[in-house]
């Protein structure tokens, strides 16, 4: 499925100007049909999966209790 720049920006929650910059730098795959840039939606699946995995790891890290500091008990 192909998306326009506007649809891609909404799908990725990024500004349209950033998507345009990625196109100019050839960092994402696209087609130009003579009127508009069309961007293949499937190329972002891996990116979104990695983003979700990173969010999950960050949440687990935040919820992990801090170990007790051994120096706290060693006060005179």
From TrEMBL:
One example GO MF annotation: DNA binding
One Pfam assignment: HTH_17
Record-annotated Helix-turn-helix domain positions: 2-46
Keywords, alphabetical: DNA-binding
InterPro entries per the UniProt record, alphabetical: HTH_17 (IPR041657), SinI_DNA-bd (IPR010093)
Top-level taxon of origin: Bacteria
Keyword field contains DNA-binding: yes
Name of this protein: Excisionase family DNA-binding protein
Organism of derivation: Metabacillus mangrovi
């Amino acid at each position: 499925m192909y998306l326009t720049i506007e649809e891609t920006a909404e799908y990725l929650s990024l500004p349209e100007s950033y998507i345009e910059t990625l196109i100019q730098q050839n960092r994402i795959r696209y087609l130009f049909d003579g009127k508009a840039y069309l961007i293949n939606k499937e190329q972002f699946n891996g990116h979104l999966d990695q983003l979700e995995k990173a969010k999950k790891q960050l949440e687990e890290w935040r919820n992990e209790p801090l170990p007790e500091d051994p120096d706290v008990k060693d006060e005179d």
